[in-house]
Amino acid sequence: MKKVLLALSLSALTWAQPAAAPAKVMTIPSYKSLKFGPAPEIKIPDIPMFTLANGMKVYLLENHELPLVSGFALVRTGNLFDPKDKIGLAELTGTVMRSGGTKSKTGEQLDEQLENVAASVETSIGESNGRIGFSALKENVDDVLAIFQDVMQNAEFRQDKLDLAKQQLRSSISRRNDDPGDILNRNFAEIVYGRDNPYGWRMEYEHIDNIKRDDLIAFYKRYFFPANMILAVQGDFATADMRAKIEKLFGSWSAKQEPVPAFPPVTAKPSPGVYLATKNDVTQTNFSFGHLGGELKDPNYPALSVMADILGGGFSSRLFKNVRTKLGLAYSVSGGWGATYDHPGLFQVSGSTKSQSTVDTIQAAQSEVNRIRTTEVTDQELDTAKQSVLNSFVFFFDSPSKTLSRLMTYEYYGYPKDFIFQYQKGVQATTKADVLRVAKQYLKPEDIAIVAVGKPADFVKPLTTLGPVKEIDLSISEPKKAPAASSDSASLARGRSLIQKAQQAVGGADKLAAVKDFTQSVEAALTTPQGSLKAQQTNQWMRSGAFRQTQQLPFGKIQAYYDGKTNWLASPQGVMEMPPPVLRQMQGEKMRVFFELMLADRNPEWTVNAVAENAVEISSKQGDRVRIDFDSSGLPAKYSYQSMGMQGPTAVVSTPSDYREVSGIRLPHKVVIEQGGQKFAEATVSEWKLNSGLTAEELSKKP
Length: 703
Prior knowledge:
By secondary structure, this protein is an alpha+beta fold. The two termini are 61 Å apart. Residues 1-21 have low confidence and may be disordered.
C-alpha cells in the first residue's frame, strides 16, 4: 500500500510541474547541400635510384614518420612460365622459398627469430611477378635485412615443406567446387581466355604430383638473379646509410642467367554462348557475362573506366540503381572494364539473384549494356563518374609505401613514371561522346559469354531463353595412379595362396561367406588441421552391395548411402546426391570392407596378385587398388591405398590390431589410420553385429 501511495504522490508532483518549453528541433542538412573542395594534388617524390654492378636496380625512399623500415623485390617471373604438365610450380616455389628456410636455418627458426622482433619476411609468386618483402622496426633492420638477403639468395626448399605446400594445393583443388562464386570466376576466366594457354590453365592433382623438389630449385635458379629484379626500400633511414647496407648485402651476388623472355601473349578467340554449371545445393544463381577487356596503356582506357563506373561501378551505377534497386532482381550486381599492365583483362558484369529470377536478371543487366552502347549518358552521370574516378586517385598515393609500390610496378611493366597523371588528364577530358564511342567500340554483344552457377530446376524461365546452353563439367580429375604391380601366373597363384591363408587365420572361408550383413560401431579420435575431435561412426553392410555410413561429429550428423547404383548424402544442410569426390571415397570404403577383401579370390571383378613375400595387391576393374600386408600368422597387419581425404587425394595406411573372435570370426577392434604420412585417426570398435537381418529398404531409407 505504501508503494502505491508513493507512486500516486510522485504522479501528483509530476502533474504539478509547469509545462516545459517546446524542444528545439535540430535541422540536419541534406547530403546534397554538402560542398567538397578539389581533391588534393598528388605529388610524387623524387626517389633516388641506383644500379648495382650485378644489374639489380634499387630505389630508396626516406620516410621518418614512424621508426619502421620495409621493402620488397619484384622478380620478373610468374605462373605464366609454368610448364604445361606442372601447373602450380611457380606458386609452390614462391611458398616454399620462405617456408623451406635457407641453407643455414629452417623455416621454423626464421619464424621464431622474426617473431621475436615483430618483423616479417615473406615470399610469393603470382601470375606475372614474384615478390619478396620484409618489414622491421628501425632498430632491428640490420638483422632483418640479413634474413631477407639469406632467403633471397640461399633458399633451401626443404622436402617436408614442399610436401605440406603440395597437400595444401591438393586441398584447394578438392574444395574448389564448394563456393559458387569461386566456380563462377574460375570458369568465366577459363572460357574467355581459353583452356589451351597459361591464362586459362587449370591446376589438377596430376600437375601437383608431377612437381619435385628439383623443379623448384631449377625454377628459382632460372628467375631469381640480380639483373632480373628491382629492389625498393622505404622507411626511417638515411639514404646514404641504406645504400651502403644494400651494396654490402647484395653487391657480391653474382648469379647470372639469360634474359627472361616476354610473357606469353593472350591468343584467345571469342567464345560466345551460354554456359551452365549445375550446383543443386544452392538457392540462388551467381552469374557473369562479358568478354576480353584491355590493357591499361590503351589510349581509350580513361574513357572506358568512366564508362564502366557509370555502368556498374557503385551505388550510383545503372546496374545497381535499375537492376537491384528499381527492379529488385539482384542481391548484388556490378560491372567493370578489366585492364591489366601487360595483357587484356576481362570485361565482366556479375551478380547474384534468387534462382527463380535468373533469366530476368541477366536480361535486365544485358539491357543496361545495350543502352550504354546506344544512347549518351546524362551530364549528371558523367560528372558523378568522373569525380568518383578522380577522387580515388588520392588513395593510390596516400602513404609512402603505396607510392613506392605503384612506381615500382610502373617500372616493372615498362610504364612511364607519370602514367597516373596521363590517366588523370584522360579522365578529366572524357566527354559524353567519348563514353558512347568507347562503349560502341569495345563492348561487343556478339562476343559475350554468359556463365551461370545455380540450380536449373528452380529457374522459372529456362536458361535456353538466352540461347543454346553448354554444360560446364565440374568433375575433378583424379591423379594418375601408379601402374599396378606386374603379375604372372606364379604371382597370381601366390596371391590366392596368401588370401586363403588369411581366410583360415580369421576363421575360415565358409564362415566369412556366411556373413550376409554386419553393423560395426566405432569410436574415433580424429586429428585435423583445426585440432583433435571425437567422432562416433556406424558402418552397415549387406552382401547384396548396400553400404551405409553414419558419423556423429561435433557439428552434426553425416549419413551416406551407396549400393553401386544409387547414392545420397545427408548432413545438417539437407539430403543431396553425393558430390563426385565423396562418391569416390564411398566407393573405396565399400571395396575395403573386411569381408569383401578376405574373399577377394572369389570376386571375378578383382585380381589378387602377390607383390611381396607376405603382401598382396587387390585390384578392381575400375582401377581401385588395395595392398594388404599380412603378419606371420596370416592376419592382415596393414592396408595401403589411395583415398579422397579431407585434403584431397592422399596415401592412406590403415593398421588393424586387437583381433577378437565374433561368431567364430577373428575381427579387428582397433585401427590406426595415417594420411600422407601423418596420423589422422585412431578408431576403437565397440561392437560388431553379424547377420542381424539388415534389409536394403532399411539401409537406403533417407533421414
